[in-house]
Amino acid sequence: MSETLPQIGDLMSATVPMVRTLSLEFAETTPERAVVRLPDQTDYHNHVAGPHAGAMFTLAETASGAIVLSAFGDQLSRAVPLAVRAEIEYKKLAMGPVVATAELGRPAAEVVAELDEGKRPEFPVKVTITREDGAVTGEMSITWTLRPNA
């Protein structure tokens, strides 16, 4: 477990109502990787008794937010992280609990260097959603930005 786990997980649970609503669990949060779990909950099932597509989207977006906060939390005094766009592909039927694993698509130092230059950097976060048996049920690509404070 990461030293940042309680800070990021607790912060997101306290400030993002959907994290609490879906009872998302933070297994790992580092600047290199974030792993978030959506427990199996019948209240959030779809018509085939698996997790609803909207719940899986929220899971993946949350994992991406966790890695962004882990990688760029030291920049919050001068920039706000914002999701710019997202695309998700549902690949296989998800049943039971699912796990989203997020990874930065660019080195954090490169993004911070652009911010240092006065730019508004954009960077991708790739997320893989898997079932307990390891099968990939979805993939998401989210573009984030660090918007400099005015």
Automatic annotation (TrEMBL):
**Would you indicate the residue range of the signal peptide?**
none
The protein's superkingdom reads Bacteria
Question: Which named protein is this?
Answer: DUF4442 domain-containing protein
- Name the source organism: Streptantibioticus rubrisoli
**UniProt xrefs under Pfam families:** DUF4442
Organism taxonomic ancestry: Bacteria, Bacillati, Actinomycetota, Actinomycetes, Kitasatosporales
